[in-house]
Amino acid sequence: MTTSTSDTRTTELIRKRAVELGFDACRFADARAGWEAEARLRKFVEAGRYGEMGWMADTEARRRHPTAMWEGARSAIMLGVNYGPDHDPLEALEARDRGAISVYAQGDDYHELIKGRLKQLASFVASRFGGELKVFVDTAPLMEKPLAERAGLGWQGKHTNLVSRDFGSWLFLGSILTELELPSDGPSGGSCGQCRACLDACPTGAFPAPYQLDARRCISYLTIELKGPVPAELRPMLGNRIYGCDDCLAVCPWNKFAARAREQRLAAREALRSPALADLLELDDPAFRALFAKNPVKRIGRDRFLRNVLYAAGNSGDAALAAPVKRRLDDSSPLVRGAAVWALSRLLEPAAFARLGERAQEADEAVCAEWAAAALAP
Question: What's the pTM value of the predicted model, to 2 decimals?
Fold first, then answer.
């Protein structure tokens, strides 16, 4: 049974509890109203811009609107957690012999951290005001960014991420859908104006137009979601980015306001701020799991991560990395061996690489193709 309340004291009590739990922003939206997000999603899927993320097509019907996923949803409680860094993350791109890990993945997995806070807030709402509710944090077919925009947490910028007046482009989102009829806050307004810094910053040109993303060219997709080799023409553009990419977020002019909630930043692990590629190249599976325990990088697995590290080594121009890269030619994973071939083709002199290829004993078709392609490369 739907519970109705237009009393703003209800939302203020929920907001107060959210802040106590560590959320930086809490606003409310009508979960039933129509929106343009459905049409944008349909165009994205029809264009095939989701790449290997087939779940986006599979769940499109449920993803189109909050009530398509849960008919009982009446209101959305939208939460934000600031994760703005205390430094310029693009500085890591200058140290080519070290890896650049996206800011959000340098500490504990935010899904678990935010989910815990959301469950505590949901318990408070249910016990105090009643009504069924559901909790989400980037793990279900719910379009959270359009809901956050409707609630007034910010607006979707030209890079398709949420931009906040208070936190720039550095907000984790969480949401609670509820049967309660809660007063809506409404959009906050704001826009990107003529600024196109995020679009121009993208190394791979992943934005066909403002407010449109082609995931197949996005470095975050390539280093995290893509399971096989990265297309050869895009590998040089990865630079030393070994997990995710912060470029379009980091250049947003609104980030200057993110310092307002510095005390709420999620702690980064020192070992993950700018790890040496030489060290990462030596990781076996147990060492990988130990280094990335309770961290989002762990979910892509050691082989996919080593693929990224090897591409970074190939882009480094550091001949000293050739020795640890060579050791990966004997790796048990064809994905890793293929990436090692490409890296060595860029680290070794042509004659030395050719001699190495003559001695190579490789049975895997994909790795053999890497050797052949590298031999033909100018």
Answer: 0.91
